[in-house]
Structures are given as C-alpha cells and as structure tokens.
Amino acid sequence: MIYHLHEFHKLALAPLRFAAEANQALLRHPMNLMSYTPAARAIAASLELLESSVRHYQKPAFGLDRTEIDGEIIAVHEEIVHRLPFGQLKRFVRAGDETGALGHPRLLIVAPLSGHFATLLRDTVRAMLPDHDVYITDWRDAANVPLQEGSFDLDDYIDYLIEFLAHIGPGCHTLAVCQPSVPMLAAVSLLSAVDDALTPRTMTLMGGPIDTRINPTTPNELAQNHSLEWFEQTVIQRVPASNAGFMRPVYPGFVQLTGFMTMNLDRHVGAHMRLYHNLLRGDGDSADQHRAFYDEYCAVMDLTAEYYLQTIEKVFQEHQLAVGTFRHRGKLVDPGAITNCALMTVEGSKDDISGVGQTRAAQDLCHALPDDMREHWEQPDVGHYGVFNGHRWRQEIAPRIKAFITRHAG
C-alpha cells in the first residue's frame, strides 16, 4: 500500500512539478528583464527547491568519457561485457586498451546493492581509471525485473560475483564498497577453499559491515532492535502495476532514501538552504555541485525482498560471517581459507553507517594470511561517503589502494 501511495503521490504532483519547471525557465530567461531582479531570483530559487522535492530522479549516467594517462587525455567508453537478470558487468574501456595492451591490473569494483545505483561510485571509478582496467557491477532495479526472471538472494549475489570474476579471468583485483564487503569476502573464501584459479590477487574492503557488533551505528541498532518479521511486515512492498516487475516483493528504494535523509536531516536541510542563498547570489558553481550531488543521492532503486531480508538476518542480526556460521548454499564459508589473496581494509573515522572496526574485523577472520599480505587504513575526518568519494578519497585513500594493488600485482 505504501508503494502505491508513493506512486500516486508522484503522479498527482507531476503538474505542480511541470509548472515549477516552466516558471523557473521563464524567470531565468535572459530575454526576460525581470530575471535580473532580486525578486525574480528569489522566486526562481524557491521554485527550484519545490521542484527538486517532488521530482522523480532517474538512474544517472556515469559520464566518464575520458581519463588522463601519463599526461595524455585518453578516450573512455562503457561496454557491457556480461549480462545477468539482476545485474550486469560493465567495463570502462580506454582507447588503445581494448585487449589489455596497456598491461594495467584488471580491477573489479563491486558496487553496493543497498538502494543507490552503481553510479554512486563514479568518483571511485574515475580515480582508478588511469592505472587500471576497470570493471564494475551494475545492479538492476528490482522494480524493472519481471517475476518470471525468478528470485535474487544473498546466495545469488555471491554466485554473481564468482561469475563476474570468471568472465574477467584469473589474476584480477577486487574492491568492494560498503555492503558488498560481506559477499565479496564470502566469494573469495569459497574460491580459496578449493584453490580456484579465479581467486583474485587482492581484495580491498571499504566501509563494510563485516562485524556490526563493533561500534554499532544507528542502522545497526535498528536491525538489532526489530525482528525479521517486523521488517517483512513493515517495509516489504509489492511493485505497482506501472513497472515491469509488477507484483515482485521488494524493499523500495524510496524507503531507504527516507531513512538516510532522516539520519542527517539537519545536514540536508542546511544544504538546501545554502542552495537557495547560492542561487540568490548567482553562485552557479556551488549550485551545480549541489544539484550534481542530490541528482545522484536521490536516484534510488528497489532491492528484492529475499536479498534484503537475508542481509538483515545474516549480516546485521546474527553476524554470521563474524561468528563463523555463514553458509552459501549449505556450504560453510571460512575466511581462514584465504591464503593467497592480499587483503586491505579501509575505514572512515567518522563513518555513521559502518562504524570504525567493523571492516577491520576482516583482518582477524583472514587469520591465515601472512602479515605482508594484509594492510589497514583508517582515514581521519571522513564519513561513510567520503571513504570512496571526494578529495580525501582521491588524494589520500586511492593512492594507498593503488600502491597496495601494485605490490601484489604479481
């Protein structure tokens, strides 16, 4: 019912959004003499805030069409190299490197499946492109997957990662951001247990919930304080008829977005007030930065109910990987089997999603790794988003990861 009300609300406010857009265009048109007055700027700024609050945000584009290698600008294009029902493997192909001629390490970036699209990692990809042959998991909005495609749960997620690694081939490197730290660690553990050639050479886990008993955050406490039945009855909805995934049970992306916004409501309200004042002052650069961030942040996708509920139960309530009871299709997952995949863990000192120590817990679980194959970095003064995005990511974190990969490139 909540999902249907959300869709009705979106449709009902569409005329208001169109009117706000039209009046903004009129008030900002250079041929309109009123556009140069403070009153017109104030009204146009107010209309932009109104329009942005009722807009339906679409999946953004990566927009990464170039990179710089050794001072030379190199063209980049996206290529879908492997497609599965609930996600695809995307490669950022650099001109002249179609067959790997540059000899750079192949890197699989595992994007979160937690409400946002893979484009949230645009800055992550951008920083790694000059030195790596980059692939990324591009997950599909469950609302667009027809019921006949079947289900998708945490076991399937791990299977997808192994299949993507098989497509890339032996000797690649992996970087998992946030939520996929758990399935990535599980996949590498399973491959290592059978000495599979697909075992990656390195695994970097960033801001992930490996053990949420350590420094629990607000989302961790929410999972602990409610039963699995509460989550199933409260947040799981059926996709409305206007979508290809009609009747599929999902955890709606707009519910996740509402939770994230509520956690830091003062910060988001303040950001929108700054946008208003920047528009009044004519500070277009600051306004563009705000728009770019929220166009990305507000674009959300649905998760399958089975995947979401299994993640709540296995990761956030029972901590199965941390306590040694995590199973994949009945087989026990043992990170202690990892002996030939170097491990790096990265955390932000101000992370309010995955608390400090939760990702580092992977170091203890991978106890068979020698010291020279493990590394940990805690980045001062960054929160969850800053671990993989922004100037500290580009200037301080990414160079460390690149150096780590280079040391273990083989």
Notes on the structure:
This protein is an alpha/beta fold. The chain has 3 domains: 1-56; 66-220 and 303-407, Alpha/Beta hydrolase fold, catalytic domain (Rossmann fold, 3-Layer(aba) Sandwich), CATH 3.40.50.1820; 253-301. The protein is 42% helix and 17% strand. The chain has a 9-stranded mixed beta sheet with strand order 1-2-3-5-4-6-7-13-14, sandwiched between helices. The protein has a 3-stranded antiparallel beta sheet with strand order 8-9-10. A hairpin with a 2-residue loop joins strand 2 and strand 3 (87-94). Helix 2 runs antiparallel to helix 3, helix 3 (38-54) runs antiparallel to helix 10 and helix 10 runs antiparallel to helix 11 (284-297). The longest helix has 17 residues, at 38-54. The protein is globular, with a radius of gyration of 22 Å.
